Amino acid sequence: MRGLTASAILLCSLQRLVAFAGGLPPFRSARLRSGQRGQPAQASAAAALLLVWVLLFAASVPTWAQESAAQELKPLTVERIYGQPSLSGKLTTGIAWSPDGKLLSYFHRAGEGADAKTDIWTLEVATGERRLLVDSDKLRGLLPPSEPEGRGQQTGLGRVTPQQYCWAPDGHALLFVTQDHLYWFDLKTQTGKRLAGPPAEGPGTQKAPALHDPKISPDGRWVSFVRSYDLCVVNVATGEEKQLTRGGREEWMNGQLDWVYPEELEIRTGYWWSPDSSEIAYLQMDERPVTRYPLVNFLSYIGKTEMMRYPKAGDANPIVRVGVVSLVEGSSRWMDTGHDPNIYIARVQWLRDSKRLAIERLNRAQNKLELLFADAADGRSHVVLTEEDKYWINLHDDLYFFADGRRFLWSSERNAPEGGFPNPGGFRHFYLYDLSGMLLKQLTHGNWGVTALAGVDEQRGIVYFTATEKSPTERHLYRVALEGGAVTRLTRDEGTHTIKMAPDAAHYLDTYSNAMTPPRQDVYRADGAGRAVLNENKVAELAAYKLQPVEFFTVPGADGTPLEAMMIKPPGFDASRKYPVLVNLYGGPHGQVVRNAWGGTNFLWHQLMAQKGFLIFAVDNRGMAARGHAFESPIYHRMSEVELADQLAGVAYLRLLPYVDAARIGIWGWSYGGYMTCTAMLNAADVFKAGFAGSPVTDWRQYDTIYTERYMGLPQENAEGYKQSSPVTHVAQLKGKLLIAAATGDDNVHFANTVGFSEQLIKAGRYAEILTYPGRGHGISDPPARMHLFRRVTQFFLDNL
């Protein structure tokens, strides 16, 4: 029978024969012994006969049964999990909607090695028909070969994959982008031309790609980009270049972002075209006050050092202002954002009239956000809307101006803003305002939150968005009418849906996964019907590993708040046994571990550890995402305290389970999860026997301004909070086994965190195992390093638990 393994056949037969012999107790575990004390003599005889029978039967098991058993019990390995081809499959890349929303373009790759080729194809969403748009021979001349994967995970803008092409506004051409060149490709004639390249010489060209952030003007006549820290444009028809700003350099950037703004404010560009294509608004970042931090390449014989601008908690930030430059005049006008330079310019966007700019001004404490409208001609501004919070403001990208020039859409976590629905949980919801800042209508409400604006269909009066309405562990697409009313869920499959809406909001691309299934890509009509498969991404090999199901449930937190939790049990789970537990956590703001979504290599490594006899457990504590601002805010000014209390409440739940060995509980996490692992090993030293911390923060004075001060305030004003929240303070309390992995090239959580922790270990006479990864980044993500690390992590927990 399909699915009945040789071992299962033996087990069933063994049980039946034992019962027939009548001399042995029922089969309950792998520790069955023959000839047990107190059993009748015939039991031993029966056992002897049984042994002979088992040996004879095993020799006669059919080949298909042996092959089936081997296939179904195939063990996962670190090498396979982090090797190629990926067990998560491969998603289609290079996806872009045509300007009219009728076509979805994408890279189509075929062949392997030297025979591999890449074309651009399109999917016509109305009919499902696929057509070749640009063939591989033409692409080869426009795009360079793929570069090998880097040795580390970059942060800041480095974590955003740069686009390789984009559609011209009229849909008749494509702009192809490389690190050094821009090419314009006419789709009708199938011919291309070079628009721009690197300068012959100049500052900055050796440290970074020569061309940054290219964009096509709304009228399609110009292509803009940043080169050597200044804004430039090139005329598509003539190839004539213009440099719009002057004086750009590493410490004085025009239209180019630094490290901390994209990393912590999640802003993705430093300039914006006006809708009429006559002007460009941009950020000018004065980096001179910001500390230059060294990243040393210890693999070089001369200690080659790269300097980066990194503002640490309590120190100086860049001074940022907003300029507007005309393509005709070429001189900049500066917008009035107030007299205090110690602020953040969180977002910039043009209004539809091309005469005004919307600027979001955030104070340094990050508890007051103001939406300003500035006159692009003279820079005068006024406050239209203000958000204030006792703790901090979470930024969003949900500002949308309507074509009627009278209204805009905005999202907020405020409680009952201006007479709206009560919102004690601080969930994000949509509001409709007029341009004077007067609230017209609240569009959504409830004990769930909007997670992203997907699109707006102004003609039909519909707003599309993703939200947690069904569950905080899932993401679904919804719609709501601009006139108000009930929201409608459009996605049906339980799990996580990431949406890329067409420009006309008539169709959307849905990248969908759940906890047990790698992501797939499908196109739907805006009403959720009419699926066209782009990429099923089936990974047949996964079936061989018999992945154990993820169980979702809730446990009470330290204050009784229900917390989302999950568990993976070992294959052949036996409730009468005692199992060691591996707790995985992140713990910090904006993070989630307990998600009904494909978890990639982390999930597969957990499956490997389950195969080795571990229970895998995770609980999302207060302070984490998707449960509303009130769920996050208890961590304010005292990081780790509430998070650890909830994690310990999760352990208390585990201890109530008869199959959990409370003396063998380990913990691990990365980044903030690494910080929480160190915290748990030091402040709950009698609870966790072993812990692995990947790239951990160990001292909040070592981390950047925007993130740290948002939750901890300034160190000058919360010195005791910084001290008690930092693992370096509590090193002397270490009892269990602690493993730390850190990279010398980490531009996010600097290696100094691990060095400082090591110094305190020496002073306290305590020991931890520290793995150092030369030149890698925050994720230590290249396959050789990842395999090296997780081979050790696997053995570490086997040895200590």
Ends apart, CA distance between termini? 38 Å
Tell me the strand order in the biggest sheet: 36-37-39-38-40-41-42-43
CATH architecture annotation name of the domain at 552-800: 3-Layer(aba) Sandwich
- What's the CATH C level of the domain at 552-800? Alpha Beta
Helix content: 10-25%
Would you tell me which CATH topology of the domain at 552-800 applies?
Rossmann fold
Number of E strands: 43
Q: Rg from C-alpha positions?
A: 29 Å
Give the CA-based shape: globular
SS field, number of helical segments:
14
Q: Mean of residue pLDDT?
A: 89
Q: Find the structural class using helix and strand composition.
A: alpha+beta
Report on the structure:
It is globular, with a radius of gyration of 29 Å. With 801 residues, it is of the alpha+beta class. It has an eight-stranded mixed beta sheet, sandwiched between helices. Helix 1 runs antiparallel to helix 2 (41-59). The protein starts with 5 loop residues before the first helix and ends with a helix. The chain is built from 14 helices and 43 strands.
Quick rundown:
A hairpin with a 4-residue loop joins strand 28 and strand 29 (462-467). Helices cover 19% and strands 31% of the residues.
Topology, pairings included?
Layout: H1 6-21, H2 41-59, H3 63-72, H4 78-81, E1 96-97, E2 103-110, E3 117-124, E4 130-134, H5 136-142, E5 165-167, E6 173-177, E7 182-186, E8 191-196, E9 212-216, E10 222-227, E11 230-235, E12 241-243, E13 252-254, H6 260-265, E14 271-273, E15 279-286, E16 292-296, E17 305-309, E18 319-326, E19 332-334, E20 343-350, E21 356-363, E22 368-375, E23 381-388, E24 400-401, E25 407-412, E26 429-434, E27 439-442, E28 450-457, E29 462-467, E30 476-481, E31 488-489, E32 496-501, E33 507-514, E34 517-525, E35 532-535, E36 550-556, E37 562-568, E38 579-584, H7 600-611, E39 615-619, H8 629-632, H9 641-655, E40 660-670, H10 672-683, E41 690-694, H11 705-712, H12 719-725, E42 737-743, H13 752-764, E43 769-773, H14 783-800
Parallel strand pairs: 38-39, 38-40, 40-41, 41-42, 42-43
Antiparallel strand pairs: 1-2, 2-3, 3-4, 5-6, 6-7, 7-8, 9-10, 10-11, 11-12, 13-15, 14-15, 15-18, 16-17, 18-19, 20-21, 21-22, 22-23, 24-25, 25-26, 26-27, 28-29, 29-30, 30-31, 32-33, 33-34, 34-35, 36-37, 37-39
Helix pairs in contact: 1-2
